[in-house]
Amino acid sequence: MKELHTFGWYAAKISPYLPKKAFQPVKSRLFGGMVYLLLTIGGILAVSLLNLHPIWNLLISVMLGFNFASLGFLGHEILHGTVVRKPWLRDALGAMAFWPLCTGPKLWRKWHNVTHHVHTQDEEMDPDAWPSLERLTKSRLLRWVYKIPFPIRAFFAFSSLSVMFTLHSIRMLVYFFKDFRSKNRSVILLQFCLPWATWIGLLLIIGWERWFFAFLLPLFIANFIVMSYISTNHRLNPLVPVNDPLANSLSVTVPKWVDVLHFHFSYHTEHHLFPAMSSKYYPLVKEHIKRMWPERYHEMPMSKALATLWKTPRVYYQQNELIEPRQGHVYGVLGNGLDPDHITYRNVEVVPFSSLEKKPMTMKKAAEKGENNKKDSSS
Q1: What pLDDT digit, counting tens, does each position of 69-90 carry?
Q2: Rounded to an integer, what distance in angstroms lies between the CA atom of residue 239 and that of residue 134?
Q3: Domain coordinates of the chain in residue numbers?
Q4: Which of 52, 78, 160, 239 gives 319 a disulfide partner, CB atoms 3.0 to 4.6 angstroms apart?
């Protein structure tokens, strides 16, 4: 692995080349949010009040799902303070944008801004990081999951993208709840319950069939769109001891019109360098990164990134590799031997899963033994 630097180190190198306006809030982003909000309200009203053919309801659902996701991307930007700076207005607008995804602004800022951004790809501190082999041996649930054959597990993993953001948000509420002061806990619960109360209330008013098209199916679609980005942000990158965005993050490429409609959410490395900068200026940041550190920067088409995720496991081995525990197949990660165009693996010796119940730390020892075997074979 190359020498690692903090995001502040990179930002200090690039900042002198950026215009001053790049560090100011961009309130005009709210116009796009207003369009999405009006389309969302109109779509829900159309499904709820009109007796449309199911095909039309399905088309409106797809539009609503796209809107839900795009509003989430805007909410992400708003809650980083890159649209408005006043805290009360930031949180109010962020809550509105995240309303379809049922995530409150206080929880999001604690989970995403304060924890994920500060400890990106730190196995212990980043709540979004995937587990290492050592953590796998300590978790009965993970051991059970990884008994499932890899192809089947990959299929269900991709299918779960349609619900994963919602489920992970609920998990983060439970995970961080105790960290909030007592006076703030009621606010956190209120911000979580109000959106759900709204959507459940809609169900009681319009009935199950229309609610499916007005909210549930759009929520599945939005989850899938949002998680398609989030899954590629870091899951092909190594766990790192230093929060280096050029090592631990991946930017994906999508058609320009998609970039505009999704508020440039694809520029994820750039976002981790300048989280308080509007994504409007990330294409400019990208130009400077590729000029100054072309060999460090990771980017690939979204379709290729998703295909690579499908073909590789999600358990870390020695921090800078990925392992399929059942077979002992070890894959590289970005910057450490992973070639998305030609994915290969090497073998290490692992302990059968049946023995993990009695000796949960055996796999760690087996991993070390496999590493020693690798060294012996190369000497």
Answers
A1: 999 999 999 999 999 999 999 9
A2: 13
A3: 7-302, 304-378
A4: 239
